[in-house]
């Protein structure tokens, strides 16, 4: 039995602090003179961001810091995907779905936040060109740490790549039993990022790992990068958090137009402004008179025609669904002069 | 600059076909006599399932095969998470969220389907014990290929583990800048599984990879395994597919009880039985007379009291929301003797 050639994953020590304007290819080649053609470099996005000056100054502490962080987050957010407690999952301008848009306050002084690189694929291409200028033909992956749905714990995945195909496509190939491998596209750049993280750690300043001996499609040039891994919200079955989607469904029920409806936007955040938001959501659809009562709302018809009474009923249900979408369950009481909605306690 | 000690990932060749009752520890040690204490073995779940006889016989082709596959899938499914076209994402009895419950028809003859191991953590423990009986102190990870939300491409993750902690917890540690690492728990068994896949491939019968040189918490004994990575549906922000959650929201709007409601189950599948399902969903809540009309439904009140007219209106909206939850948008027309719902074309 011959010893199989192993894949090697080497940490790169001694890169030290990276600041805006630094030449990463220079810093890395100096710290890893043993780099060789065919190596795959997994570079933590943080040092790429630092070298590119993707830092914003924020107060070191206090409520001002959190306010500043929220402003920065809003600027990096294309859309909010899910929110629970202090956790906000957003889709970034790049299309990545990440907690807090990948904005990071670790491994940087307390007066700065680190943003993701502007264009991680471009960062990987530029870095790869920097190595090429030094006579090194390597692939470059820019990686970051992300959470995921359904499983606890974080893993490193790729934000950008150059000189390697993000996907290894087995489709059309056959297994030894003659079964076609119909649905097997492996996200190898994510697996390489995960492998690299195993030698990096979070605090010991090893921002680069080198994977040696991985045979990949070297003929791709820079290639399309990681952008091909991004699934657009329409084709993603989990483009919106469950509770957000459920609220959006209730919201759309509450705002059904008399003509066939289109899907409405995400419902507004619940409580303490929930009742106000619910009323605003259906205000344009109501002909009934709505009056605040202790612990509820009273609806009376605009006129006493049978049609006006029937419409009052539809409007009462619209308003109930709107309140439910805002996390405010209600009880309903109907009498001959109108309806009373009684607020319940959110379950 | 001294050469850092690399992490090594070695493929294990020559294991060959695995059948029910095979001793995997024996097959692996024979194929990899170079195994050493401290190695982390990443074992593809497929050969674990085969050794444990987790195969079901199915017709080789035809509609009977698909019917059989659906029966098997139902048996492995704890709940359906999302469905689109031919893709069904379910939570398995183990708690894993996977397409088709991880049931696999590849790398097996056409008359069988391979199920996930009954208890992958137990499988990993048993396999580790098998190596221990041969004087080898190794960690064992049982891995499989999974898709994920938001990103194209598949990666290998861990289904079971023994002799290694699934999570590496950085919480409470501080980075060089004095920032506490508050939310950093790395799912190292998933990263090790991904690293192992890089040397396995899908068709070349390399079902085991060995990671050498990874320093992990060896003092854990077997440890809790991968079960600690499973996030229960309540704490998962993506416990349900977006469209399923939106439909559930519409459904709950349609079925609001007069008393504060509880969250209803997932709405029934839409079309062609959509209208029937929508009517059934609210049947118990309707006092109005509902009549089929060309392209719609006509609702008339059970009596002519003002309260009955108002209630008719609430019921008309319940029914509209129920139809919307089933993918059937409606238009609404109100007159003095009732309401007419006109079916629209799903957008």
Automatic annotation (TrEMBL), chains A, B:
UniProt-listed Gene3D superfamilies: CofE-like, CofE-like domain
Source organism, top-level taxon: Bacteria
MF terms in GO: coenzyme F420-0:L-glutamate ligase activity; GTP binding; metal ion binding
SUPFAM superfamilies assigned: CofE-like
InterPro entries in alphabetical order: F420-0_g-glutamyl_ligase, F420-0_gamma-glut_ligase-dom
Transmembrane segments: none
Keyword entries, A-Z: GTP-binding, Ligase, Magnesium, Manganese, Metal-binding, Nucleotide-binding, Potassium
Domain Coenzyme F420:L-glutamate ligase-like stretches: 16-213
Short name of any one Pfam family annotated for the protein: F420_ligase
PANTHER family assigned to the protein according to its UniProt record, in alphabetical order: COENZYME F420:L-GLUTAMATE LIGASE, PTHR47917
Annotated protein name in UniProt: Coenzyme F420-0:L-glutamate ligase / coenzyme F420-1:gamma-L-glutamate ligase
Organism of this sequence: Actinoplanes derwentensis
